[in-house]
C-alpha cells in the first residue's frame, strides 16, 4: 500500500502581507522553520513516500527552497504548477497522474496554512476502518463563520451529514481543520477546472454518505493572517509537540542574571541570538537566527525573524518583526503590527497595529490602528 499527499500551496497569501511580499506563504517561518516543513515532517511520519506541492504563485522560489528538505526528509517532492488558480479541488485533478498511480490507495490533502498536532497516522487508521471515500479532521472554534462547518449525526466524529463553507447563520461550531485523507476513488468526482472542494465536492460526498469526520486532539490554528499567526504561535509554544521537538532550543536564563527569560519553555531561540543586559523576553517569543535584542529591551508574544535588531529599551508586544528589520531605541511596537523585510522604525516611535511594507522606514508615531505604510 502506498500513501501520498498533496499540499495546497497556491494562493497569494494576501492576508499575510507584508511578509508574503518577500516569501511565499508556506516558506514563512513558524517557530523557526517553514510552515510547510512542519507538514512535511508530519506526512513523513505517517508513511508518505511522495508529496505534491500544488503551486500557482512563485513556483521557482518554492522549488529552490525545498531541495534541501527533500534530501533531509528523504521524501520525493513534486510540483504541480497551475496556469490559472484551480481552487482547492482542481489541483487534485491536475495531480491525478501522481495521486492515482503506482498502487497508491490513499492520499492526504493539507491546506498549507494550518498548524496543529497533525495526528496523521491516527487519521489514516480511522479512515481505513470506515472504508468510505474521505475523512476530514475537525476541531471546535468560537467563531465558525470564517471556516467550513461540519455537522455530524450526534455531534461526534463519524458520518458527516452536512458540510457548509463559511456559513452566514450558525449551523455548528465544529469546523474543517483543512486536513483530509482520501481513498483514490475520490478522484473520479473531481474535474480539471477551478473548483472549490469545500463548496462543490464535500456537500456531494456528504449527500452520498462518503465523508467522515475525525476530531483533532490538541491545538489547531489557521495561521494565514497576522493576528491568528500570533495566536497560533502561543498555542504552539505551550503544546506537547513543541515540548517534544524543540527542548534543545528553549531559552535559558543566564547564570549571571544579565537578562531575564519569562517562562523559558515558551521562548524559542534560533542560532547566534544576542540578548543585551537587562532585557526581558517572554512569555511566547520566537527569535530567529542572528537576532539581536538590545539592553533593557522587552519582547513578549512576538516572533522576530532572522537578522532583525530590537534596539535598547524598545518594547515589542504581540507583533511580527520581519527579516533584517530594526526597531529603534525606546520605541514601542504593539497590537498585531507586522514589519515587512528590511523595515526600520526610528527611535522613540510608537507603532500600533500597523503593517509596514518591505524596505520602508517609520519615522513618527502611528497611533490609529489598521494603517499600512507603503
Ligand atoms: N494550488 C492552489 N490553487 N492552492 C490554493 C488555491 C488555488 O487556486 N486557492 C487556495 N489555495 C490554498 C491556500 O493556499 C490554502 O493553503 C488552502 O488552499 C485553503 O485556502 P484559504 O484561502 O486559506 O482558505 P480559508 O482559510 O479561507 O478556508 C479553508 O481553510 C479552513 C481551515 O483553515 C477551508 O478549507 C475551510 O473549510 C477551512 O475551515
Ligand atoms: Mg486559510
Automatic annotation (TrEMBL):
Provide the leader sequence positions.
none
CDD domains on file: M1P_guanylylT_B_like_N
UniProt domain Nucleotidyl transferase: residue ranges: 4-237
Keyword Nucleotide-binding recorded? yes
Alphabetized, the UniProt keywords read: GTP-binding, Nucleotide-binding, Transferase
**EC number of this enzyme:** 2.7.7.13
Q: Which pathway is recorded for this entry?
A: Nucleotide-sugar biosynthesis; GDP-alpha-D-mannose biosynthesis; GDP-alpha-D-mannose from alpha-D-mannose 1-phosphate (GTP route): step 1/1
Q: Which InterPro entries match?
A: GMPPB_C (IPR056729), GMPPB_N (IPR045233), Mannose-1P_guanyltransferase (IPR050486), NTP_transferase_dom (IPR005835), Nucleotide-diphossugar_trans (IPR029044)
For this protein, the record's Pfam families field holds: GMPPB_C, NTP_transferase
GO molecular function terms attached to this record:
GTP binding; mannose-1-phosphate guanylyltransferase (GTP) activity
Q: Which GO terms describe its biological process?
A: GDP-mannose biosynthetic process
Q: Where is the Mannose-1-phosphate guanyltransferase C-terminal domain?
A: 266-372
| Top-rank taxon | Eukaryota
Q: Which family does it belong to?
A: Belongs to the transferase hexapeptide repeat family.
Query: What is the name listed in the Swiss-Prot or TrEMBL entry for this protein?
Result: mannose-1-phosphate guanylyltransferase
Amino acid at each position: 500500500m502506498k500513501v501520498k499527499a498533496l499540499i495546497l500551496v497556491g494562493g497569494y497569501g494576501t492576508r499575510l502581507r507584508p511578509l508574503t511580499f518577500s516569501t511565499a506563504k508556506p516558506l514563512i517561518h513558524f517557530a523557526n522553520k517553514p510552515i510547510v516543513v512542519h507538514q512535511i515532517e508530519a506526512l513523513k511520519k505517517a508513511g508518505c513516500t511522495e508529496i505534491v506541492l500544488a503551486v500557482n504563485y512563485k513556483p521557482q522560489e518554492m522549488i529552490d527552497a525545498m531541495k534541501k528538505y527533500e534530501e533531509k526528509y528523504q521524501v520525493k517532492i513534486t510540483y504541480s504548477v497551475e496556469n490559472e488558480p484551480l481552487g482547492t479541488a482542481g489541483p487534485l485533478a491536475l495531480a491525478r497522474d501522481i495521486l492515482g498511480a503506482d498502487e497508491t490507495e490513499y492520499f492526504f490533502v493539507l491546506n498549507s496554512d494550518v498548524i496543529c498536532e497533525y495526528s496523521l497516522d491516527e487519521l489514516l487508521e480511522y479512515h481505513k476502518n470506515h472504508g468510505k471515500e474521505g475523512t476530514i479532521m475537525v476541531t471546535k472554534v468560537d467563531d465558525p463563520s470564517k471556516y467550513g462547518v461540519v455537522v455530524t449525526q450526534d455531534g461526534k466524529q463519524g458520518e458527516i451529514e452536512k458540510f457548509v463553507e463559511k456559513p452566514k447563520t450558525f449551523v455548528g461550531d465544529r469546523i474543517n481543520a483543512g486536513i483530509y485523507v482520501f481513498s483514490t476513488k475520490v478522484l473520479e468526482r473531481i474535474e480539471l477546472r477551478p473548483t472549490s472542494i469545500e463548496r462543490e465536492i464535500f456537500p456531494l460526498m456528504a449527500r452520498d454518505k462518503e465523508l467522515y469526520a475525525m476530531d483533532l486532539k490538541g491545538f489547531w490554528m489557521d495561521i494565514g493572517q497576522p493576528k491568528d499567526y500570533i495566536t497560533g504561535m502561543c498555542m504552539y509554544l505551550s503544546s506537547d509537540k513543541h515540548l517534544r521537538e524543540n527542548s534543545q532550543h528553549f531559552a535559558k536564563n543566564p547564570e549571571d542574571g544579565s537578562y531575564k527569560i519569562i517562562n523559558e519553555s515558551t521562548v524559542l531561540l534560533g542560532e547566534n541570538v544576542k540578548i543585551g543586559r537587562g532585557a526581558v523576553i517572554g512569555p511566547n517569543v520566537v527569535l530567529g537566527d542572528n537576532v539581536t535584542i538590545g539592553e533593557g529591551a522587552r519582547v513578549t508574544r512576538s516572533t522576530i525573524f532572522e537578522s532583525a535588531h530590537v534596539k535598547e529599551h524598545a518594547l515589542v508586544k504581540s507583533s511580527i518583526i520581519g527579516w533584517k528589520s530594526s526597531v529603534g531605541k525606546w520605541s514601542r511596537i504593539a497590537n498585531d503590527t507586522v514589519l515587512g523585510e528590511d523595515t526600520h522604525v526610528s527611535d522613540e516611535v510608537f507603532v500600533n497595529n500597523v503593517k509596514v511594507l518591505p524596505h520602508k522606514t517609520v519615522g513618527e508615531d502611528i497611533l490609529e490602528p489598521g494603517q499600512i505604510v507603503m
